User: Fold this.
Amino acid sequence: MALTLVHSPANGYDLWCLAGRLDAAAEADFRAALATPRAEALLLDLSEVAFIDSKGLGLLAWLTRTRLAVGGRVVLCGARGYLRDAMERVRLHEVVDLLDDRAAAIAWLQR
Assistant:
């Protein structure tokens, strides 16, 4: 299943819902969609991501570095099971907030 990216502008942040596979095949679409910030804060909902590999983890790291370099904020939510484990193994949670669900992520952004 290819990666699907759905953008929803929200109150003061951009919400992107991802579904499918976050891997090398998704790189071009992921970079094209997320390269240009539309808001200072970015919320990625990963609850429907079925698969991630090292390239997908690298894309999340690239996005985080890019946004933080220009003073933006990034929060990820919805990662469960092996997806969350993979993010923690590469220590992504040390540079970006990784919250359990969208409600918690929205509350984090509004603080």
Observations:
- The CA atoms of residues 62 and 70 lie 13 Å apart.
- The longest helix spans residues 54-69.
